[in-house]
Amino acid sequence: MMKAERPSSPKTVRILTYNVHSCIGTDRRLDIDRIAAAIAETGADIIGLQELDVGRARTGGVDQAHAIASKLRMDAHFHPALHVREERYGDAVLTALPMKLIRAAALPSIGEPRGALWVEIDAHGTPLQLINTHLGLRRGERLAQVEALLGPDWLSHPDYSSAHRLLIGDFNSIPSSPAYRRLAAEIADVQPPVLRHRATFPSRFPVFRLDHIFASRGLACTQAQVIETPLARRASDHLPLVASFALPDARAAEQKEETRG
């Protein structure tokens, strides 16, 4: 069993988004252990994964979400965007921090079904509202999915909009696309202020920046990095994107509110 290294300070949290391509690498080899190792080397505390197989014949019937979580000594919430009989395919959030599922549901889709997964995570006393998603391949479809995400069931829900917020995933959208611009107008992309727009796809010779981490202003991103190690280049057709955040001092905030009261 492997375990991702934790940040040295409990006042920080590392967030990872990673399209794992059903754990099939660029060498066409199915290898869950390799994906888990690629994740572990990032030291991420909270992990959003896309393109996971659960009980699918093509990948040996394994529950990839929980297999990876077990190897990292984490818990997982999985949402199947596609569910045909016993076979499922979708997205997951993994963490060893206390986590509660808030919502898991489909997004409007034209081609392959897509969905989103919303969890609340207690990050060292700071509650985080995190949504992990994987948008479609068609421009119009992505715009409809973004509008749904910006609506009252997701980003505009009071429990999400009033909190420390994160939106992560494979958006299949480059920064010049209408879908990306619509999202970036509402919640900040961590890459532009911290990282020089590094591409995440395809992993061997990355050209397109499709994977993103968006965060509310109350969360200060201190570092963002596209992981380009030899292991990451082989493990999937996407590269992992990780960002570190300085957490607000929850106790100080409570004391401030008590003083105001």
Helix/strand structural class: alpha+beta
Largest sheet: 6 strands, mixed
| Spatial extent as radius of gyration | 17 Å
**Uncertain stretches:** 251-261
What is the overall number of helices?
A: 8
Helix and strand element order: EHEHEEEEEHHEHEHEEHEH
Task: Kindly state the number of beta strands.
Answer: 12
Shape: globular
User: In which order are the strands of the major sheet placed?
Assistant: 3-4-2-1-12-11
**Alpha carbon gap, first and last residue:** 48 Å
Please bin the fraction of helical residues: 10-25%
Mean pLDDT: 91
Strand content: 25-35%
Q: Your description of this structure?
A:
- This protein has a six-stranded mixed sheet with strand order 3-4-2-1-12-11. Strands 5-6-7-8-10-9 form a six-stranded mixed sheet.
- The radius of gyration is 17 Å and the shape is globular.
- The model is unreliable at 251-261 (pLDDT under 50).
- The protein has eight helices and twelve strands.
- A hairpin with a 6-residue loop joins β5 and β6.
- With 261 residues, the chain is α+β, with helices and mostly antiparallel strands.
